[in-house]
Design brief:
Elements lengths: L1 E5 L2 E10 L9 E6 L4 E8 L4 H14 L7 H21 L11 E10 L2 E7 L3 E6 L2 E4 L7 H6 L29 E6 L5 E5 L1 H4 L4 H10 L3 H13 L7 E9 L9
Antiparallel strand pairs: 1-2, 2-11, 3-4, 4-5, 5-6, 6-9, 7-8, 7-10, 10-11
Helix pairs in contact: 1-2, 5-6
Length: 254
């Protein structure tokens, strides 16, 4: 858990990851570096423990980044870091005994001053709860849009596993096709970074209700993960919440 002061806001954050009820090991990883205004979730893929190698490499390298004076510079540093990890994962395919792609999704949140930046590749998501309304800031990099364009209804997409096939991830192609979005922040904003093990199990209305009701970011995250575990939880599940508060607010503890 981290509590930090980032110019205009105090950021209270907490993350939790769980293997789930079906998988034998956890290929998700998270980074809660609130003092640097940086948070990330990575969801590895590649069979056996190879996905875990990719997701852990991502968060370990991001954790080594030094804070920059300007948000744009910090976003560039994150992008360069992820490109370097991408190149390393691709090169690992040539090693003796390699069994193909070692990859991972990633979503990163940066908060500095009055603005935030989201960077991502894959289907790990970043949500923003503001004024009681939940907004998905990221766009899933999978084949869903192709299926919708072909005339499939959104309600029926769960019947077609191929629709969730990733079209972007760290460790797949070079250069890494990252997507980035900047937004202005407000006091009271609550961001949620999560793997698809959470977003695939909970409806947005459920996520909204838990984010609103949680007395703290720690309680919120625990309630989100427990809500998934109470179901089948076929995948690993990871949740990382970040709440922004004014420095003058009385309640500034996680």
């Amino acid at each position: 858990m981290q509590t930090s002061h980032v110019q205009t806001f105090h950021c209270a954050s907490h993350g939790l990851t769980d293997t789930g009820n079906v998988r034998s090991h956890n290929e998700d990883a998270l980074l809660d570096a609130g003092a640097a205004g940086l948070w990330a979730v990575a969801d590895g893929a590649g069979g056996h423990d190879r996905g875990e190698v990719a997701s852990q490499m991502i968060v370990q390298e991001l954790a080594q980044l030094k804070p920059q004076v300007f948000l744009g510079e910090q976003a560039q540093a994150v992008s360069a870091c992820l490109q370097a990890v991408n190149a390393r994962l691709i090169s690992m395919r040539a090693l003796p005994g390699s069994q193909g792609i070692i990859g991972s999704t990633v979503c990163v949140l940066l908060v500095h001053g009055k603005h935030s930046v989201c960077l991502w590749a894959g289907d790990s998501r970043i949500y923003l709860l503001r004024g009681g309304k939940l907004q998905q800031l990221t766009r899933d990099h999978n084949r869903m849009e192709e299926f919708l364009a072909a005339g499939f209804s959104e309600a029926d997409l769960h019947k077609y596993p191929a629709a969730r096939q990733l079209v972007r991830a760290v460790g797949v192609t070079s250069p890494l096709p990252l997507e980035m979005q900047m937004q202005e922040c407000c006091a009271g904003d609550c961001f949620l970074l999560c793997s698809d093990g959470l977003s695939g199990e909970l409806e947005e209305a459920e996520i909204t209700a838990i984010l609103q009701a949680g007395p703290s970011v720690q309680a919120t995250v625990e309630q989100l993960v427990q809500a998934v575990l109470a179901r089948r939880a076929r995948d690993n599940v990871t949740a990382l919440a970040v709440r922004l508060e004014n420095p003058t607010d009385a309640n500034m503890t996680p």
